[in-house]
Write a structure and sequence with these properties.
The structure holds two protein chains of two kinds. By secondary structure, chain A is mainly alpha-helical. Chain A has one domain: MetI-like (MetI-like fold), CATH 1.10.3720. Chain A is 77% helix and 0% strand. In chain A, 37% of the residues are buried. In chain A, helix 3 (52-59) crosses helix 12 (236-260). Chain B starts with 11 loop residues before the first helix and ends in an 18-residue tail after the last strand. The longest helix of chain B is centred in the middle third of the chain and has 18 residues, at 182-199. The radius of gyration of chain B is 26 Å and the shape is elongated. In chain B, the strands form four sheets. A six-stranded mixed β-sheet of chain B has the order 6-7-8-3-9-10, with helices on both faces. Chain B has two domains: 12-238, Rossmann fold; 252-379, Nucleic acid-binding proteins (OB fold (Dihydrolipoamide Acetyltransferase, E2P)). By secondary structure, chain B is an alpha+beta fold. Chain B has helices spanning 12-16, 58-66, 108-118, 123-136, 152-164, 182-199, 210-216, 234-239, 244-249, 280-286, 312-315; strands at residues 20-29, 32-42, 47-51, 73-78, 81-82, 93-96, 170-174, 203-207, 219-224, 227-232, 254-263, 266-271, 274-278, 292-298, 304-306, 319-330, 334-340, 346-352, 365-370, 375-379. The chains are: A mainly alpha, B alpha+beta. At the A-B interface, helix 8 and helix 9 of A face strand 6 and helix 3 of B. The complex binds adenosine-5'-triphosphate and magnesium ion. Adenosine-5'-triphosphate binds next to helix 2 of chain B.
């Protein structure tokens, strides 16, 4: 049997793959040229070339506040989720207690449960606690969504780490705290940092839960976009989308680079 | 820090006290006993090796001493202090792992400094002692390298320096040289042994290489199924094994299995048509009653090959057995004979090569002879369950 029929089949496969990638990427990437349009309408292909919508994004207080709010929430979420997620990973990977599997499943459940259900649940509880429309409520909610990413990353690092190293540290006189600070933490740091970046991204582009937990006075960037798109369709949205996309992509790439810095052996 | 102030040169009362005492130590994983009643007393400055087949409980014992594994029963005392409530980081026990376990994110010098930092030593003292430790393992100038920039043997030396730099009360090593090639292993055996002696360290060393154990140790504990089968100097184990297991495990042995019959202070080992005399000393050491399965152990260099017609040796009260030569292996300073005994068992004989000794050829029918004093009697739990039927009533000789 020969390449005579294999060659076209290969070509077909490549074409199909390229098409799939195109369909996945096109709707996202189409906003990039659209954001540089000179016209007042969101059109594709864009008419003319200008950066006026970026100027508007930066100067319009509604957008800049949203931007700032998003950054604040994502930053706090990243910190909180990294600390909690690292501790949770240590507990579930190293701990020996009954129901360990169940606890692990519970921690990872936000990855599986539909976000809208989480949003409704949180909304009804947070209303009672009176923390809707506040940064506290949103950070708590986003932390719950982001913790699984930290746990998965840190757990992977922990599992690939030589346990003898911790025992060696102990035999050399380091108690549990110093063993963690001097040995474990430096060695799982790539996993922790990658987890933190994923946590930041999770919060940064989260919209469903945010819609429930924000208010007119406190909005994050994705929520602001959602509100604006429903009213005026102004190319600023495209500029904001492009910025959002750029930040997310950069952080993702960074996370992958960090992740590859496996502890040196 | 509980241990920082401990004097490095042991006071006299410390020297009288055993460095380590294990009593009735047991560990089960589920229902499987991994360590099944180990008793051991180690003197200050002694080099003890735990030797035994895979799965016999050596590592588990070591990990209990270090405190990484909690015993199911029994006690561990280090320098007279009970360790049952003491976590590993307060036991003041240096441990060397088979895979070195150097901290990959620290340089060699930082690795060695780690235990000193944990004991809050001053900066200048740390610098001085790290330099000393590097000199001790002959790696001056390598302090700035990371573990991945060092060869296996160098990593092992750094691991050793790190484990001794704080003068631990005990030094535990679990097959530290197992991953190295033979030549390097032999060089490091001597080095580890000399440095340990020089420091006066008490060492518990695990290996399953019997030669390594014989070379390095003051005493060897032979492990079998979670117990110490025999504890003693290499010579004791070689010359006076207490069991078939030890005889088989240490060195080459010729084992004649049979049925033991008491006769006065000594006795006879009977097998089929053969009958060998057992001396009073061997009988007393084995502490065996008559009428039970037993075996005689004779080392290959204690056997002599004589002409089958040569009755001289037998007449002098020595034991003999007929054999035929199967292989002759010339090994330089010695010649090794593999022989077949009448019942298809094999025997090994080592003959010094001198130049004028008689050399036997494969296929030759010969007689093996050995002095009664050169044999060891051990019980044979796996031997015949009952007395064999028709045995000659008179001794062969
Ligand atoms: N964590 C554990 N869980 C269950 N069983 C274990 C565990 N550690 C050891 N064992 C069992 O205990 C027994 C003794 O193991 P141990 O590691 O002490 O043997 P060893 O003498 O060190 O053998 P080797 O020479 O192969 O290193 C083995 O049967 C082993 O399977
Ligand atoms: Mg072992």
């Amino acid at each position: 049997m020969t390449d005579s029929w294999r060659q076209p089949r290969r070509l077909l496969l490549v074409a199909l793959g390229a098409l799939t990638v195109f369909f996945l990427m096109a709707p996202t990437l189409v906003v990039v040229p659209m954001s540089f349009t000179a016209s007042n309408a969101l059109t594709f292909p864009p008419e003319g070339l200008s950066t006026r919508w970026y100027e508007k994004m930066v100067t319009d207080p509604q957008w800049s506040t949203g931007f700032l709010n998003s950054a604040k929430v994502a930053f706090l979420t990243a910190i909180l989720a990294t600390v909690l997620g690292t501790l949770a990973a240590l507990g579930t990977v190293r701990g020996r207690f009954p129901g360990r599997g169940a606890v692990n499943g519970l921690i990872l459940s936000p990855l599986i449960v539909p976000v809208i259900i989480i949003a409704i649940g949180m909304f009804s509880v947070f209303v009672r606690w009176k923390i809707t429309g506040s940064i506290v409520g949103l950070v708590l909610a986003h932390t719950a969504l982001a913790v699984p990413f930290v746990v998965v990353n840190v757990a992977t690092s922990l599992r690939s780490m030589d346990r003898n190293l911790e025992q060696a540290a102990q035999s050399l006189g380091a108690g549990p705290v110093r063993t963690f600070r001097r040995i474990t933490l430096p060695l799982i740091l790539p996993g922790v940092l990658a987890g933190g970046l994923f946590a930041f991204i999770t919060s940064w582009d989260e919209v469903v839960v945010s819609i429930f937990l924000t208010s007119a006075r406190f909005r994050t960037l994705p929520v602001e976009m959602w509100e604006q798109v429903r009213q005026v369709v102004d190319p600023t949205v495209a500029a904001v989308s492009t910025t959002l996309l750029a930040v997310t992509t950069t952080l993702l790439l960074l996370a992958f680079v960090v992740r590859r810095q496996a502890p040196a052996r | 820090m509980t241990t920082a102030g401990r004097p490095i040169d042991g006071s006299s009362e410390r020297l009288d006290r055993p460095a380590l005492v294990l009593r009735g130590l047991e560990k089960s994983f589920g229902d499987v006993p991994a360590v099944d009643g180990v008793d051991l007393e180690v003197r200050q400055g002694e080099f003890i090796t735990l030797l035994g087949p895979s799965g016999s409980g050596k590592t588990t014992t070591l990990r209990m001493i270090a405190g990484f594994t909690r015993q199911s029963a029994g006690t561990i005392e280090i320098d007279g202090a009970d360790m049952s409530q003491v976590p590993p980081y307060r036991r003041d026990v240096g441990m060397i792992f088979q895979n070195y376990a150097l901290f990959p994110h620290m340089t060699a010098a930082e690795n060695i400094a780690f235990p000193l930092e944990m004991r809050r030593a001053s900066r200048s003292e740390i610098r001085r002692r790290v330099a000393e430790a590097l000199a001790l393992v002959k790696l001056e100038g390598f302090g700035g390298r990371y573990p991945r920039q060092l060869s296996g043997g160098q990593q092992q030396r750094i691991a050793f320096a790190r484990a001794v730099v704080f003068h631990p009360r005990l030094l535990l090593m679990d097959e530290p040289l197992g991953a190295l090639d033979k030549k390097l292993r032999e060089a490091l055996q001597l080095e580890v042994m000399h440095i340990s002696r020089q420091l006066g360290a008490t060492v518990i060393y695990v290996t399953h290489d019997q030669e390594e154990a014989l070379v390095m140790s003051d005493r060897i504990a032979i492990f079998n199924r979670g117990r110490i089968e025999q504890l003693g100097r290499g010579e004791d184990l070689y010359d006076r094994p207490v069991s078939l297991f030890v005889a088989d495990f240490i060195g080459d042995s010729n084992i004649l299995r049979g049925w033991f019959e008491r006769d006065g202070d000594g006795g006879w080992l009977v097998r089929d048509a053969s009958r060998w005399r057992v001396g009073a000393a061997a009988t007393a050491r084995a502490a065996l009653d008559g009428d039970r399965a037993a075996a005689l152990v004779v080392r290959p260099e204690r056997l002599r090959i004589v002409d089958p017609g040569d009755a001289g040796a037998a007449a002098a009260g020595a034991n003999t057995v007929e054999a035929s030569v199967r292989d002759v292996l010339y090994l330089g300073s010695i010649r090794k004979y593999e022989l077949t005994l009448p019942d298809e068992q094999t025997a090994t004989v080592r003959q010094q090569v001198g130049g004028n000794e008689r050399v036997w050829q494969p296929g030759a029918r010969v007689r093996l002879t050995w002095a009664v004093d050169d044999e060891v009697l051990v019980s044979d739990p796996g031997g015949r369950p009952s007395r064999p039927g028709d045995v000659p009533t008179a001794p062969l000789a």
